[in-house]
Write a structure and sequence with these properties.
The protein is α/β, with parallel strands linked by helices. The protein has one domain: Rossmann fold. Helices cover 29% and strands 24% of the residues. It has an eight-stranded mixed β-sheet with strand order 6-7-8-3-9-10-12-11, sandwiched between helices. A hairpin with a 2-residue loop joins strand 11 (303-307) and strand 12 (310-313). Helix 4 packs across helix 5 (156-167) and helix 5 (156-167) packs parallel to helix 6 (186-203). The longest helix has 18 residues, at 186-203. It is globular. The structure holds iron/sulfur cluster. Iron/sulfur cluster is lined by residues 247-249, 283, 285-286, 289, 291-293, 296, 301, 314-316.
Length: 321
């Protein structure tokens, strides 16, 4: 099967007065069509930078310094600005954090959808564009009447669904959703996630779901990728990640979650994540790692396959890889 998305050695840095911060440091990831990947990690680990880099939306003082983002046979990192504009929505869609607040409050939903399609050379007539927009609303379980409504007439969950409907208008192969359910109540969160699930099934698109809510991840994704200081630490199936995490950081992250056994006694990860401007030498997790060995302070562990379809960056698994 041809992958829907291939990310090779993606690198992003931010240049500040205090120096260079490597926000993404050689990320490699492959997703198959229809696959759902959850991207987790502490704040500042690079999750949102990854989404923005895939969309080519990194703003100065940041820049993509290397690597590839390949969808189908197109490398997004080498497209002209004009072609990248067309690739957004048609190849890759982005549902940002607080997307529902990005709707224009003084423009009807339908007009916003029509504008999104018109920004692409689809060759569709006005009638076809309107029909496509209404179908898209229906596919996220909204009524056709929403087309004529203003954002303030909709609930938070409905607005978020409108954003998903806009995202899928041109049937992208990859959807990146950055905390799509933050600021929604638990019931609405679930409904929005079910909507994402349903539209993904229909499109056969690959999804990267960025978030903090591991419980939600456990229910909706096939694989989990754990990020730390701009690098992937472990990528495993959701079952393996929750039942037998391998990388020491992933182990700590999973053990810090509440469950029936620890009955509300949470075990945090010792220390704090380092600033990207002052990363420790070797493995960036070594000052916090209870399993660190001598080499960890000196050499950065390579990210490699440690079991079938399971990847990690840790010296402990070097021999087994
Ligand atoms: Fe811990 Fe060393 Fe593995 Fe880093 S490479 S996670 S410090 S054991």
């Amino acid at each position: 099967m041809e992958p829907a998305l291939k990310i090779n050695n993606l690198q992003v840095s931010y240049y500040t007065d205090a120096g260079r911060a490597r926000a993404l440091d050689g990320v490699n990831l492959t997703l198959n069509p229809g696959e759902k990947l959850g991207l987790v990690g502490e704040s500042g680990s690079g999750k949102s930078t990854m989404a923005l880099a895939m969309m080519r939306m990194i703003k100065p003082p940041g820049r993509i310094e290397g690597g590839e983002v390949i969808i189908g046979d197109v490398n997004l990192t080498t497209l002209s600005e004009e072609d990248m504009l067309k690739a957004r929505l048609s190849r890759i869609a982005y549902i940002p954090q607080g997307a529902m607040n990005s709707l224009n409050p003084v423009t009807r939903i339908g007009a916003q959808m029509v504008d999104a399609i018109k920004a692409h050379d689809t060759g569709m007539s006005k009638k076809e564009i309107i029909e496509k927009s209404m179908e898209s609303l229906e596919s996220v379980d909204l009524k056709r009447e929403v087309f004529k409504m203003y954002p303030h007439e909709l609930s938070g969950g409905m607005k978020q669904r409108v954003c998903i409907a806009i995202g899928i208008l041109l049937e992208p192969q990859v959807i990146v959703a950055d905390e799509p359910t933050s600021a929604l109540d638990v019931i609405t969160q679930r409904q929005v996630m079910e909507t994402i699930d349903k539209v993904q099934d229909k499109l056969g698109a690959a999804i990267i779901l960025i978030g903090h809510d591991m419980g939600l991840m456990a229910q909706f994704v096939d694989r989990v990728a754990v990020m730390y200081t701009g690098r992937l630490m472990e990528v495993s199936s959701v079952k393996d990640m929750f039942t037998r995490p391998k990388h020491p950081y992933a182990v700590d992250l999973i053990h810090s979650l509440p469950n029936l056994e620890n009955k509300g006694v949470f075990k945090g990860i010792p220390g704090v994540a380092p600033a990207l401007l002052r990363l420790p030498s070797g493995c960036s997790f070594h000052p916090r790692c209870s399993q660190a060995i001598e080499i960890c302070q000196k050499d950065t562990p390579p990210y490699q396959e440690i079991e079938d379809n399971r990847f990690a960056a840790c010296h402990l698994f070097q021999e087994k890889a």
